[in-house]
Design a protein that fits this description.
The chain has two domains: 86 residues, Alpha-Beta Plaits, CATH 3.30.70; 54 residues, Alpha-Beta Plaits (2-Layer Sandwich). The termini are close together. By secondary structure, it is an alpha+beta fold. The strands form four sheets. The chain has a two-stranded antiparallel ribbon. It has a two-stranded antiparallel ribbon with strand order 2-3. A hairpin with a 2-residue loop joins strand 2 and strand 3. It is built from five helices and eight strands, in the order E-H-H-E-E-H-E-E-H-E-E-H-E.
Length: 143
């Protein structure tokens, strides 16, 4: 299954992936209009440590601890993609505590959010990958 991978050697720390992610989840066609005057809450985050920048997003684990920890059944693995049913999420945050990568966060609605590979908003390559100017984020299958 294809997943998002990050090559921190190529990451510029420009945060464009965060904007493309936030845009992908608006359902709008124009990024400037969709994000104008908004505080974005992307599902991918740029971290910087010791001069190295890298993107943190869901790794869609083969054995996802977040899914196992979800007491409401809101998190599910469907064809290798971990998705959230926001109607089932009760905001208990056990998935956040169980994710070893820090890829699950609380959304502005009070339920959790994480990368879902843009499967519900965009077909093909996730928007964060498309928007990375340095090809530091890739969407590929690895052995």
């Amino acid at each position: 299954m294809k997943r998002v991978y990050v090559n921190e050697k190529w990451c510029l720390g420009c945060h464009l992936c965060e904007f493309y992610c936030a845009f992908a989840n608006t359902g709008e066609k124009d990024m400037a209009q969709a994000l104008k005057d908004l505080k974005i809450n992307p599902r991918i985050k740029i971290e910087e440590q010791n001069g190295i920048s890298f993107a943190v997003s869901c790794r869609h684990c083969r054995e996802p601890f977040c899914v196992k920890a979800c007491i409401s059944g809101a998190l599910q693995a469907n064809d290798g993609v971990i998705t959230i049913d926001k109607d089932k999420c009760i905001g208990c945050c056990t998935c956040i505590l169980s994710c070893p990568f820090g890829a699950v966060a609380v959304s502005e609605e009070g339920v959790v959010q994480k990368c879902e590979l843009c499967v519900q908003t965009h077909e093909g390559t996730p928007r964060c990958v498309e928007g990375c100017p340095n090809n530091a984020i890739v969407f590929e299958e690895r052995g």
